[in-house]
Write a structure and sequence with these properties.
Blueprint: H1 2-11, H2 14-32, H3 37-43, H4 45-60, H5 65-81, H6 83-86, H7 98-109, H8 115-135, H9 156-245, H10 250-280, H11 293-302, E1 306-312, H12 320-340, E2 343-352, E3 357-367, H13 379-390, E4 394-399, E5 407-414, H14 416-422
Parallel strand pairs: 1-2
Antiparallel strand pairs: 2-3, 3-5, 4-5
Helix pairs in contact: 2-4, 4-5, 4-7, 5-7, 5-8, 7-8, 7-9, 8-9, 9-10, 9-12, 11-12, 12-13
Length: about 425
């Protein structure tokens, strides 16, 4: 990672370093061919300006590609205006190869909307340089066209063919440099996209882990709430009952204490089971089943809740998650009835298997009293709705308008057969 960062930082200085080396090399080479430097500067100042322009274009071709194209265009225009002092000739014509670096850098750096302009620039530079080399007689590799008036002979066809070859070579080199920059940029973008995708994947994986941890924490909290809220509600009801009836029925105190102890033991057992199964089976730990609802109803009766359990139809198999949801929904509903229905609470639990799933109805009512608190949105109600949703069903709850102290919970849990039929 450190090496990659170092390479990225060093890459921005690549073209400026190349430009400096390019300028110094050709400056020393040209100076070596002229022993008198002042005379050289006076006679070929446009040549030096052209060399400096090419070097500047190389230096900024990737940082400011539009500037590089503008400077290169000015160099070519200047050489057209000063053909005998600015154009690179027999010994220094390779300076024009610096434009290939400019074309490559511009193609790699320019934005998509400027890409057609950069391609036109590559074509224009190639044609202009080839024209400067052959049009002004600066590349007489094959000799000038002979003056026929003096009796000289010349193969005009060969000269034309050679000059067409120069144009073709210039175009091939320039277009090749442009394509190299284009595909180089595409490859670099692919690497960046791959790195971004890998980083995004890691972030999503970390977020997924955090979500799973949060969901597991919420599930544990909900299980602990359901267990403890139910047990403590039973204990409180038994303790209050024993306190009120103690003067008239002392023997009832012993019965209440036995019920309190039994409820506490049951709660302790469920908490221990929860902790143990989290270690041995953290995903789908064993939990209370629908078959244990009878025991739940018996415990609620001993706590003072007049409750009846009815089933309609033939039970169908449910998943462990669905059975746990049914048990907790009934448990929370009866616990709320015991806590909030006031004096002499009455509850009726109906499990109806006659549809495409299990319909659950828990209706409760009692004589309102000043001690009973209004049942509002709480963790228990949220937990019931969430359990029903995770089991593939739904849950609604609310007070009964025409029944003082009345409250009803309705839920539906689809069976596996119903889910397969819908699919």
């Amino acid at each position: 990672m450190a090496m990659h960062t170092l390479l990225l930082r060093g890459q921005r200085y690549l073209e400026p370093v190349i430009a400096i080396i390019f300028f110094v090399f050709w400056a020393l080479a040209e100076t070596g061919t002229h022993p008198i430097l002042p005379g050289l500067l006076r006679s070929v100042l446009p040549w030096w300006a052209a060399l400096l322009g090419v070097s500047i274009a190389i230096a900024v071709c990737r940082i400011w590609p539009l500037v590089a194209m503008g400077v290169s265009t000015l160099v070519v225009v200047g050489q057209l205006l000063f053909p005998y002092s600015a154009v690179f000739t027999h010994t220094d014509w390779p300076i024009y190869l610096g434009f290939l670096i400019v074309v490559l850098g511009v193609s790699a750096a320019v934005r998509d909307r400027w890409r057609p302009v950069s391609f036109a620039f590559a074509i224009g530079i190639a044609v202009s340089v080839a024209g400067l080399l052959v049009g002004w007689g600066r590349m007489d590799w094959y000799g000038p066209i002979a003056d026929t008036s003096r009796g000289a002979t010349s193969d005009v066809g060969m000269i034309v063919a050679n000059r067409i070859t120069i144009f073709a070579i210039a175009l091939i080199l320039s277009i090749g440099a442009w394509l190299l920059g284009f595909f180089g940029r595409a490859w670099q973008q692919k690497l960046q996209n791959d790195a971004l995708l890998a980083q995004t994947t890691d972030d999503l994986r970390a977020a997924e882990v955090d979500l799973l941890v949060s969901q597991e924490r919420d599930r544990i909290a909900q299980d602990v709430h359901d267990i403890m809220a139910h047990s403590l509600s039973v204990i409180i009801a038994q303790a209050d009952g024993a306190r009120f009836v103690a003067p008239a029925r002392p023997e009832a105190v012993s019965e209440s204490l036995e019920n309190i102890a039994a409820s506490a033991r049951t709660s302790l057992t469920e908490v221990r089971m929860l902790i143990e199964t989290l270690i041995t089976d953290p995903v789908g730990h064993s939990a209370p089943r629908i078959a244990e609802l009878d025991e739940l109803v018996d415990r609620m009766r001993t706590a003072g809740l007049d409750v009846a359990l009815e089933q309609f139809g033939d039970p169908e198999p449910l998943t462990s998650t669905q059975e746990l949801a049914v048990y907790r929904i009934v448990q929370e509903s009866l616990t709320n009835a015991l806590k909030h229905a006031g004096r002499e609470p009455v509850a009726r639990v109906a499990l109806d298997w006659r549809g495409n799933g299990l319909a659950i109805t828990v209706a409760s009512n009692g004589e309102p009293s000043s001690r009973s608190e209004p049942l509002t949105t709480s963790r228990g109600l949220y937990g019931m709705r969430e359990r029903a949703r995770l089991a593939g069903g739904w849950l609604t709850c609310g007070p009964v308008d025409d029944t003082p102290g009345g409250y009803i919970v309705t839920a539906f849990i689809p069976t596996d057969a119903a889910v397969e039929t819908a699919a």
